């Protein structure tokens, strides 16, 4: 939906009219973009034991965008893994098998069964299927009167088999509360499904949800299903104000009731947005469930036990293989400071061998603490967004996980006895590595870089405790000759950018150089430089790593060099550097991006007359700040759902507390209010890009999601209309059904097609 005039209603379609030359350029770019957008990606992987010691089996979930259906297609791809003394080979199935309408796939602990979840649309029931090697074994339709859709989002998601594979615990939307109806005979308190009476349901009292991507979702609640009988029960004892997720089974003790351990987020009267926000208080809880085998009912009230009362955040619980320790990740730095994401820590509690939790106070043992500032590229602290279901090596105390280390994603091991952290991916590699699965004491991972398509790597630990990495040929690593040609013509490096002003008041970590990833063509014509696109990540407490990006590779294929900036405040560089940004947004982060550009110019990597900007969310905040604060520096800009006016976000965003924290710093957490004062609004406005709008000259493209609850569409529209009012060349595209990420296949495609056209128009 293009809006080239300020008066156009963004909800009504406006047909774009192109001349023949523009149409030809669009067609050419579309063809090129298709080469990249349709590349497959690996989402998940599992391994299973085989009948022989020198072999195992693996299963991968792969996905591809389908532009015609505007959805992602998923498929299962299996292989047989043959292990030799110093090598390994994968025997792949001839073809992947598409799985349609599947929300989640979860193998049982033994690998003999497969759980398939199909969340239905509209008012249809959720389907749970149990498969074995011969085919479907059980199928259950769970009516909406029991619960709604099962959460499979990676945040509230918690789907866990018990040890004997008879019961599955999971998190689903609580059943919809019955609403009164109005009929031609008047008001009825009881809900009626009788359509013949001409009745309709009342709306009832409005309920808070968890914001972005959870709009309309009901409370996440805990359920268990007996797969023998199909009986589904809501787990008793959990208070109404607690949203649950990430459930696991506690070790079973013979003769004792089984316990579930899960993460609980108290909501109180107000639910602030939780997606990507680790600063929401949470704890680990335990609850006892009745035995299905005896149809036992619990006579006494079920007690809910808070296991982590002494710490403000606990998530991703994992029991050690011997059942003696419960390991968990903590985002206490986020919760305590107010940052939406920050450096994490790892902890454990000793689990009672007799399974008795009565009146027991658990001591939290620190394993990996927060790193304030790394020295000489040493371990910068934990930045891990998820754990494997089984993250353990056979020694029972070595945990394997992915974590950000500067501008790279690495795989590390953590000794849960000593807390020792080791980097196990090659120290010389500047590529990024993503952990997929463990195969006994071996590792299956994916490695990629801005110029290398993702490929599977198999890690084998030697008798000297050194990791050797083997390239695995796989169908997922194949791409077209055109894509291979483009990638082979590119190179990249990670630049260390010194900060401009190392004031004495700064912490040591905030004085350290930050990083920027520079991608360029190997082929240079004379002394000239290709046009540059400066790519700025959002957050601000996020990070851009040296992994393959379809969109970045596409832009590089058009003849652009890329400068991807990890300004101070990014993840992966220690807590002091991260915490230096809150209170200084719109100044320190702007200065860092300008420093990175000037550094690249000084190194002879950039033509100063051909620089474009691209950023989303807080990256859009910086993009629109930069075109105002440095109005003569940039030839073009593109902003995806940008924060342009923080004062406008108060009362409209699902995370208004973010505005206070980033504007005021640590004090902002306590200052946050739903009724801001004139002084609050004035300060937020002064820190926003709109405060510099009178100086903007740069042609700017806006890409906005109409359903965005994080940065509502009004934010970008206000800024774009103000630019248009001042005669600045402006184009706005609104995607009616997209949220903050603008990641629906057609929307993502149209976004980068227009970005390519916009930059070609103004930078070439």
TrEMBL record:
Q: Which GO terms describe its molecular function?
A: omega peptidase activity; serine-type endopeptidase activity
Keyword hit for Kinase: no
Tell me what reaction this enzyme catalyses.
Cleavage of an N-acetyl or N-formyl amino acid from the N-terminus of a polypeptide
This entry carries the following GO cellular component terms, namely: cytoplasm
Enzyme kind, highest EC tier: hydrolase
The segment(s) forming the Peptidase S9 prolyl oligopeptidase catalytic domain are 547-763
Tell me the Gene Ontology biological-process terms attached to this UniProt entry: proteolysis
Q: Where in the cell is it found?
A: Cytoplasm
EC numbers: 3.4.19.1
Q: Which domain of life is it from?
A: Eukaryota
Keywords attached to this Swiss-Prot or TrEMBL record, sorted alphabetically, are: Cytoplasm, Hydrolase
Locate the Acylamino-acid-releasing enzyme N-terminal domain: which residues? 16-483
InterPro entries linked to this entry? AARE_N, AB_hydrolase_fold, Peptidase_S9_cat
Q: Does the keyword Cytoplasm apply?
A: yes
The subunit field of the Swiss-Prot or TrEMBL record says:
Homotetramer.
Similarity comment: Belongs to the peptidase S9C family.
Q: What is this protein called?
A: acylaminoacyl-peptidase
Q: Which organism is it from?
A: Genlisea aurea
